[in-house]
Amino acid sequence: MDSEIKEEVPVHEEFILCCGVETQVLKCGPWTNLFSEPRANRPKLLIFIITGNPGFSAFYAPFAKALYSSINRRFPVWVISHAGHVLVPKGKKILTTSDDSNAPEINDIYGLQGQVEHKLAFLRTHVPKEIKLVVIGHSVGCYISLEILKLAPELPIIRSFLLFPTIERIAESPNGRIATPLLCWFRYALYVFAYLLLKPWPEKIKSFVIRTGLRMMNLQSEFSVLNILEPFCLANAAYLGGQEMMKVVKRDNETIKAYLPKLTFYYGTIDAWCPMEYYEDIKKDFPEGDFRLCEKKIPHAFILHFPQEMAGMVADWLKDDLSKI
């Protein structure tokens, strides 16, 4: 199935300036510029994927492609990187639009709230208002998805899927207890280490190290993932992670209650970022909600080895909604 998806699904890679920051967008399907399409030819819906942290959208390409195939290629599926988690490779052009230059400047754009505003700015400048939206968040992308619902109720979001949602008490989770001191107390030491170790490396060495690592993990990527070893990107990912530990504490029950009919939550049974206790708690608080527990022992980082399985499930959950469009 992997080889079929790679050969058949068209994926367009773009680098844009969003709020003045280099941003990678992967677009499945023939629609690359929704505004340039005649209104009659525009898709009626866009599936928009917000990544976890680090926000390397290249790793989400297999999931996006599998989902696009699973919905019979009816609607575009786009993945956006986080601000500051990507640098434009040499020889690649940055696409700009007049709306990008008019986008408001965002304070602390690499921080948690800045990432929310970054996604909102993209949706407002790159997606026509009449196109309906399905938003899929993964990990901290679920927190961002809920913030988008709260801050932009005018957006025509018909469904939001929150996969392995880190929307509360991250620092108290098993992984959070380990990550908090590293990301909050020793972050600057990590910065210095990354810059001293990785900055001098030529691109060829970085490429070799990444290829070797991917091969050892039995992974492939058709798009460049050099940003994994870019100190600038790693520093921004660590900065965002530190803010997650400090700021994602109390679950936003008010927003969840307001949009509960549109929300589907998917929790893991072996997720050290979001333990099963959180699933049990939210089910008690919202007994009428759509909360699902993984029965396949899929890990938090499903994008690495289980993209097709997750795409198939999301496509099944979407069937009723898509049948009405």
From TrEMBL:
GO terms for biological process: cholesterol homeostasis; intracellular triglyceride homeostasis; lipid droplet fusion; lipid storage. It catalyses: a cholesterol ester + H2O = cholesterol + a fatty acid + H(+). This is Lipid droplet-associated hydrolase. GO terms for cellular component: endoplasmic reticulum; lipid droplet. Pfam families: LIDHydrolase. It comes from Odobenus rosmarus divergens. The gene is LDAH. The keyword Transmembrane does not apply. It is found in: Endoplasmic reticulum; Lipid droplet.
